[in-house]
Amino acid sequence: MTDPAGAERVADQVVRGGVQRATGFVATNLLTAIGAVALLRHLGVEDFGRYGTVIALLSIVQGISDAGLTMTATRELSLRDSDRRRDLLAHVLGLRMALTGAAVLAAVGFAALAGYDHDMVLGTLIAGGGVFLMSVQSAMLLPLMVELRNGRVAISETLRQGLLTAAFLVLALAGAALLSFFVAQLVAGVLLLALTPLLLAREHMVRPRWGLGQLRALTAVGLPVAISTVLGVVYLRMLVVLMSLVSGSEREIGYYVTSTRIVELFVGLPFLLITVSLPVMTLAARDDEGRVNYVTARTTEILAIGGVLIALVLAIAADPLVLLLGGDQYGPAGDVLRIQAFVLPFVFLAAAWTPTLLGMGRAGVLVAASSVGAITLLGAGLVLIPELGAEGAAAAAVAGDVTVCLVTYVLLRRVGPGRSISLTALGRIALAAVPAVAIGLADVVPDLVGAVLAAAVFVAAALALRVVPAEILDAARGLAARVSRR
Length: 486
Fold this sequence. Notes:
about 475 residues; mainly alpha; globular
């Protein structure tokens, strides 16, 4: 029988790790926002659209080069002793280098064949070098994730974005051309890799290996995760690349990339939970089914509240946010953001279930959900983008994410843990959003004021309806107590 106290300790451990990573996430996003202002205002709508297209292509490359290795390695490292961990880590590092190098070259070939201009093709090659270095650095950090040293991981993530933002600011002040901003990716990668040994213990430093036996075993375990990861990344970036192929307007591409850039500031938050909780969920799946159910139910409720809260704020404050970041020339992107913000509740929910499925070795469920979502998104994009441009792409993104969420939930119930999720609690979270939505629709106060008011009303309603998990309340009380003692 499951020990409820033990289950709560597991959930508490996940929450604490999530808070550490979330703190770094906030710092990283502040830096990202500063860098985005520099990019948006310096490059202008069309050049920012070209920049965003290349970065979206390279994001696909990064996902393909990862090929599920991060999730697979995190799970496998959690189950091995120190000596076997070092050998596995060395092979993960070697495989990551080989896959990333090949994927970057493939991206350059795609850019050339797709008819991208000279700066975009060359930029793909140069920035791809930065992606290669950052991919290697990410693999080096895997031991920290397994050992739940989330503070150091957060430092690395903040440092990565800090280097990029500093480069963007210098280039913008110098009046640099588009190509220089691709070079910034490479420079940041070199500096980040050079600083990474300072975050790692000596036993974490390994040389890459390419032993065929270990690589075959790693591939056999990780192939379903790899397929799911590739589909997920392609799915998230597909619309930007699709717009570059079927949209005749560089300005529409610029508007959509701008909206996507803002949404992406928040999309990464739930995926931090995957790396924080996966080692815990892997051991729980092996030892105690009850703990898996308990943590799955709690994380579902936590991320549902977070996704709805952020979606409400973005949808109501869309226009002032776009104008703040880019200025009047980006005004139409506000309508795009107002639509695309509603991907967040569904992204957050699907992310809540990913550690459970990976910990159970059920990556096939993620493959199925991502496949159906990608097909839905592609079909909706091909229909809507030619007629509606950036707003059509945003609507296609919502359709794709809703599909992924629903398919994942249905399959999660079939394998077991989904039955522990309280639909009543999710219904109360939706009910708590009703007065907040009414504030946004009333449009009687300035948008920024309305966004803050709606957020406060939603949180108050969620507390009144008793849908905020106890772990969050306990963490908030603990933080308040520490602050008061200081």
